[in-house]
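so my prof wants the structure for this chain in the tokens format not the other one, which i didnt know existed until like an hour ago. anyway here's the sequence
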Amino acid sequence: MQVESIRAFVPSKNYEESQSFYQAMGFKMGKASEDLSIFESGNCTFFLQRFYSEEFANNLMLQLAVKNIQEAFELISSIKGYNIKFEPIKNEPWGKVVYLWGPSGELWHITEFNS
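here's what i got, hopefully its the right format
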């Protein structure tokens, strides 16, 4: 088996708010169907679905690897008007990370790995 990609399906408590938030994060949005959007940045993609389960959303974790954690943190810090929370950059033995909880409670590990 030769794998080409893997894509997560992210739930949304408020579909339109989540769509807007991910666009503010710099992702390009495409419409897959009435209840499903696809978001893309570089070679990375994920689906946003018009579906919400609190238990699922609060247990969903995704990792987004970036080249510059400071740039990512500045972007996250500048986004206003969404029900999100985040923590400052944290140093780990393997790199740096910002924990970001999206509008539906999904947890993103935004990571810059050590070179």
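also thought this was worth mentioning. Residues 38 and 47 are 4 Å apart (CA to CA).
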